[in-house]
């Protein structure tokens, strides 16, 4: 039963997040004044790579290749995909003219607001309740994701309403979100079979197996990219304020 729940849940949010990202890219490409062909191209260049990426991540997770390294000589594939995916998306957004135009048209309500989807990490608590995920990972990662999602929503709302503490709430949401990822990665590694397996040895974590493997191999890189872009916009706004 829990296997079916995990599979449907992850598949649903793969589609939802990919569709949302594509819609946002198309909307803000148009808002940036790009031509119709470039708007369509930007949307397609978002939708197809995300679809291929999620499909590839699912296949890799199904083979067990995302498991933490068993020895110091084994490559940490899951961390390579996580970091590589985030850096690749960030590079496309900041090092291409089209990417810069689209991100320039987006406000913090979009960049930090997307993090509200982080509440999907509540799935870890469901997995724990069914005995499929160890509490050492489920509690900090699940509650941390929910906290990050709520903080992101509060920041988005503050920006939309023009609250004087909007910038502070955006910074807070970024700090909470990135700290949550750091803790989740640490607990994921130490509760899974591998070189650094310290906890839950009687029932190792399944976070790197399919379908949960799409969290570190697909969802997390996407969210980290949005964090980096949000922080970049914060820094740019700060520089403009000091220069004024």
N- and C-termini, Cα separation: 59 Å
The helix content is over 70%
The percentage of residues in β strands lies in under 5%
**Secondary structure category:** mainly alpha
Structure description:
With 244 residues, the chain is mostly helical. It has one domain (49-95, 106-243). The chain contains nine helices and no strands. It has helices at residues 2-31, 36-63, 77-94, 97-105, 108-111, 123-129, 135-161, 166-190, 214-243. The longest helix has 30 residues, at 2-31. It is globular. The mean pLDDT is 97. The chain crosses the membrane at residues 12-30, 42-65, 77-97, 109-131, 137-159, 171-190, 210-229. Keywords: Membrane, Transmembrane, Transmembrane helix.
Q: Would you summarize the structure shown here?
A:
The protein has 244 residues and is mostly helical. Helix content is 73%, strand content 0%. The protein has helices at residues 2-31, 36-63, 77-94, 97-105, 108-111, 123-129, 135-161, 166-190, 214-243.
